[in-house]
Amino acid sequence: MLDLLITSPLFAGGLVLVLGLCIGSFLNVVIYRLPVMMQRQWDNECCNLNEQEPKHTDKFNLATPASRCPKCGHKIRAWENIPVLSWLLLLKGKCSNCKTPISLRYPLVELATGVLSLIVFLVFGPTFKMLTALVLTWSLIALTMIDFDTQLLPDDITLPLVWLGLLVNINGLWIPLDQAVIGAACGYLSLWSIYWLFKLVTGKEGMGYGDFKLLAAFGAWIGPTQLPLIILLSSVVGAVIGGAYAVIRKQSAPFAFGPYIAIAGLIAVFGGTEIVDWYLGTWKH
């Protein structure tokens, strides 16, 4: 199988694309359910502190209960859950039972995951580094959408990314281990310092601790030298997209910085070294 992946790039790319589409379908579940699971846990912890009965006693996780239409309760069948194709061809964007419209976001997340997975394959080839880059990319997609919806970056994803970045670099897969450790520390402390400086000057909180952990994760994966690029790119992307969103909606909204860190971080993963080398080369001339 490995020989086939190496000798047949077209087959390997198609396989990665299909895998990405399927993972995208699962990420839709994570994006919706993980914040709900967190809220239910917080509610039960509050009840416990107040010596009350738990508010939520039914089982709710990424696997249970089975996916259903929120309007009529129709259980989603296997052939109704084929990434992109079911929404486009079988369901035509509507529940098969009650005809309630199904958000376009679901197939878009699946498609984006598939395309980004293919890009990872094209950049890194059929290697172990590609597999680790896929895990990082899929995690960032989930974090981006969750933060966009809730202004939360769950520790259940950010902290494992930090530790995974350190683990994959034990033998220097991406960068030397010492650089990974320094990168994780610098990533966290850089935004932590900005947070406290902003709070001391304005008395307001400018960002959440999840942003610190996400940048720490990038530091652990690709090292401290890429962090200035990520911070700069995330600020530019955030200003452009956030400004456009405010103009379109004609109202201000809570600003989630995590998605822009994730986008900038992916750019750095795919070509950060080349961007930095190009910039330094241009500056020297």
Oligomeric form:
single chain
Strand content: under 5%
Shape estimate: globular
Spans of at least 5 consecutive residues whose pLDDT stays below 50 are none
How many extended strands? 0
Could you describe the largest sheet, including whether it forms a barrel? none
* SSE order: HHHHHHHHHH
- Share of helix, binned: over 70%
Tell me the Rg in angstroms: 21 Å
Structural class: mainly alpha
Cα distance spanning the termini: 48 Å
Number of helices: 10
Average pLDDT over all residues: 88
Notable traits:
single chain, 285 residues, 10 helices, 70% helix
Question: Can you tell me about this structure?
Answer:
- With 285 residues, the chain is an all-alpha fold.
- 70% of the residues lie in helices and 0% in strands.
- It contains ten helices and no strands.
- Helix 4 packs antiparallel against helix 5 (128-150), helix 5 runs antiparallel to helix 6 (155-168) and helix 8 packs across helix 10.
- The longest helix is centred in the first third of the chain and has 41 residues, at 9-49.
- The protein is globular.
- It starts with a helix and ends with a helix.
- The model has no long low-confidence stretch (mean pLDDT 88).
